[in-house]
Amino acid sequence: MTTQAAARSILRTSPATRPGAARAGLEWRGPGAANPRPTRAISVFVLSALVLVLPACQMFCTDAGIWEPVADMAPLEASVTCTLNTHYEKPDPLNYSEVANDAEHAYRAYESQAAIQAEFGDDVLQSDGLASLIGLDYYIVTTKRAGREVQLVAVAGTDVYDFKDIAADLAIDRVRDAVTQLDFPEGFSHAATVIDKSLAGQLKQDVPVHFVGHSLGGALSTILALRFSRKNFEVSATTFGAPKVTSLRSILKNPWVHELPIHRFTLDEDIFGHWPPPRDNPLNGSEALLANYAQFGQEWILTTQGRCDFRDMREALLNTSVPTQALSPSSWNLSTHAPELYVERTQALAAPKPKRTPAPESAPPASE
């Protein structure tokens, strides 16, 4: 498998058929907006079926006695509790306007380079070299966050319309990253390495860097934030519907990862935060659980009721398996991964709330 093939994303549905674009007031102008290939539906179904079948096989083997659970979870749970109490006891305050702006940048990153150039003019830097050649697109703009000038890097996922691209992205074997010493999925690691080399000559070290991205772009944004933090950059990241990027063992053995301001936004109905699926059965005990991929960073759930709820990170760290009953492929739960849906919900949070007019006080009774 070549580096270029492993770097392709299977975590994005086609923008042309996403149902929320009109409601968000956005027009898709990126690849795939016209004449989508007929194999797109097959690609999305195959991916969803894989996400569904792998944990189902795991559950079957457990019921059949092939795997036996062991009772060695107490030390691991204690370690997770210590991590939670140290780093995730109190959520960071959110600026909903900045979150909505990040979501729109993550959405815009999928557009063509010409469209992005037209949008931002000469002030934008875009992917070049090998990153641009193999379709790992991103752009850099200077903006303000919390009153400070930052370099915002918006990373796109890769368009996928055929089965061979899906097959290429199944490179989820763990590889040790030389920069961070963390375990990353092979495909994500190769893609991040290509973008890292392209960014090296474009970012200023004395200006903070903020990474944003949706789906694969969110995963790569997280890895890039981790990498550039080890190169003495001041970094932060905001991701939307991002898959897991490292193992639970790496998360617990490297407490510095929790010190980075990484905020993950997801939807309860978005199934792609569970990718990559577990490779080792968690019921075999803590050693197997430690080898599986897990989420980290502060997680916020954008609800259909217009709320933004902080998630208990114990579940994200310890539950590295996939809730099979929630992963049945359907047009409904696949459409909930669309980036414009994240734009819609974050814009709703950022919109000024109408002030309630107090009810008029009743007039005092007339005196006789």
Describe the structure.
This protein has helices at residues 3-6, 21-24, 40-63, 73-87, 96-108, 113-120, 129-133, 163-168, 186-199, 216-229, 248-253, 286-291, 313-318, 331-335, 339-350; strands spanning 125-126, 138-145, 148-155, 174-176, 183-185, 209-214, 235-240, 246-247, 262-266, 293-294, 298-302, 308-310. By secondary structure, the chain is of the alpha/beta class. The chain has a single domain (3-350), classed as Alpha/Beta hydrolase fold, catalytic domain (Rossmann fold). The protein has an eight-stranded mixed beta sheet. The chain has a two-stranded antiparallel sheet with strand order 4-5. The chain has a two-stranded antiparallel sheet with strand order 8-10. α5 packs antiparallel against α15. The longest helix is centred in the first third of the chain and has 24 residues, at 40-63. The model is unreliable at 1-39, 60-71, 162-168 and 322-327 (pLDDT under 50).
Task: Offer a concise description of the structure.
This protein has 15 helices and twelve strands. With 368 residues, the chain is α/β, with parallel strands linked by helices.
What order do the helices and strands come in, and which of them pair?
Elements: H1 3-6, H2 21-24, H3 40-63, H4 73-87, H5 96-108, H6 113-120, E1 125-126, H7 129-133, E2 138-145, E3 148-155, H8 163-168, E4 174-176, E5 183-185, H9 186-199, E6 209-214, H10 216-229, E7 235-240, E8 246-247, H11 248-253, E9 262-266, H12 286-291, E10 293-294, E11 298-302, E12 308-310, H13 313-318, H14 331-335, H15 339-350
Parallel strand pairs: 3-6, 6-7, 7-9, 9-11
Antiparallel strand pairs: 1-2, 2-3, 4-5, 8-10, 11-12
Helix pairs in contact: 5-15, 9-10
